[in-house]
Design brief:
Strand 9, helix 6 and strand 10 form a beta-alpha-beta unit. The protein is about 30% helix and about 25% strand. It folds into 2 domains: about 5-285, Aminopeptidase; about 290-375, no CATH class. The two termini are about 10 Å apart. The chain is α/β, with parallel strands linked by helices and about 375 residues long. The chain has an 8-stranded mixed beta sheet, sandwiched between helices. A 4-stranded mixed beta sheet has the order 16-15-13-17.
Length: about 375
């Protein structure tokens, strides 16, 4: 598949793939005239430049960063959409009231390889205290110099997550990180909760019941927890899944919607209008989904392969292949309380109806090959 498809005045279309490499980012920035206030703020472990984008002259300072995990590109694309939005008349008030510093790709090495970790195989979101990696040092330096009033920590989450104990995919999840092990609602955390409630109120009109709340267990090594402990309101964004939206084109639009809603709330000084109790009414994430469910499979009467639902689940593993991301189905034999985003009745397919899950001769390989042919993402 060719990622660099040129449409609309030959501009790079970021919808074609989940991949967003440093090269693709550079092309997009140049083609969309977004280099005016771009600054190189440091380098990655492999020497790739790390950029920040400055916009606005207002009193409220907002720091955003994305692709701390290189395989979480949806929020980066939404951030780029936000940059484009800031060029429109609708954003004039935001630029009068806010000053933005935005780091689109904190982990360019991981973004190039489409991996969670940086080139030294370190999770940058567990490096807030040790600061063992150059990318972590860059983020901390920007934080110390800019002294933001608010931080947006932009991430992506897997398709397994649901909004509450339901089977509704969590299209977006949020978290106001804890500042201590007791999960105290500090002043900073309360402000982050207000921002999340303001965005949730907006999103419920477009994606009702599809917003989740991420686990708030405290880990001082996580950047959001650390910044919250320093009394900076920090919001974690997790771009999730929408039905059949594996390229996350629809999700990206809703992430942009949430960013704009929060920034408008900051600009209007209306955070305290939103009840913190409403934050806790947002349902917590559950892991109730898998990408594919094959049901009505014949099973042996012996061994561990006999299940009450006669179902097998597959979860996609995302891998970079050339200039694209491919989705490889991997088998899971768990079925209690789970549902598949795609459901396939084995007895309705000639290639599946006679496959038997037998502990003495499990036909994983043929089953996986067959599913790969049946599934199009």
């Amino acid at each position: 598949m060719i990622v660099f498809t040129f449409v609309h005045m030959k501009k790079l279309d970021l919808n074609n793939s989940r991949l967003l490499t440093p090269t693709m980012l550079d092309v997009f920035l140049k083609e969309n005239d977004l280099l005016d206030t771009l600054t190189t703020i440091g380098s990655s472990a492999q020497g790739k430049p790390i950029y920040s984008y400055h916009k606005g002259n207002g009193p409220f300072k907002v720091l955003m960063w994305s692709q701390m995990h290189g395989n979480e590109s949806t929020t980066t694309k939404a951030m780029l959409d936000f940059w484009m939005y800031l060029k429109t008349p609708a954003a004039f008030n935001l630029l009068d009231q806010c000053t933005f510093v935005m780091i689109p790709q904190l982990n360019p090495d991981g973004s190039d390889a489409y991996t969670r970790f940086n080139a030294n195989e370190v999770d940058l979101n567990r490096d807030a205290i040790e600061l063992s990696q150059p990318e972590s040092i860059v983020l901390r330096s920007v934080y110390d110099q800019f002294e933001p009033h608010y931080c947006f920590n932009l991430h992506g989450q897997r398709t397994v997550f649901t909004a509450g104990n339901t089977y509704i995919p969590a299209t977006i999840s949020f978290l106001a990180p804890s500042a201590d092990k007791n999960r105290t609602v500090t002043a900073a955390r309360e402000l982050a909760m207000g921002l999340i409630v303001s965005a949730n109120n907006k999103l419920q009109k477009s994606i009702p019941d599809a917003v989740g709340r991420y686990d708030d267990s405290f880990n001082i090594n996580c950047v959001g927890d650390y910044f919250t402990s320093l009394n900076t309101p920090t919001v974690l964004f997790e771009a999730g899944h929408f039905k059949d939206d594996y390229h996350r084109i629809i999700v990206r639009k809703h992430v942009l919607e949430a960013i704009i809603a929060m920034c408008n709330t900051i600009a209007s000084s209306s955070i305290t209008d939103f009840n913190v109790n409403s934050y806790f009414e947002i349902p917590e994430n559950y892991k109730n989904l898998r990408d594919v469910e094959i049901f009505n499979i014949k099973t042996s009467t012996e061994g561990n392969f006999k299940t009450s639902a006669n179902s097998v689940f597959y979860q996609f593993k995302e891998l970079k292949k050339g200039a694209d991301v491919v989705f490889i189905p991997e088998i899971e034999l768990l079925d209690e309380g789970l549902k598949g985003l795609l459901k396939i009745d084995a007895q309705q397919h000639d290639a599946l109806k006679n496959i038997v899950l037998d502990p003495l001769n499990p036909d994983y390989e043929n089953l996986t090959k067959t599913i790969s042919l049946l599934i199009y993402v």
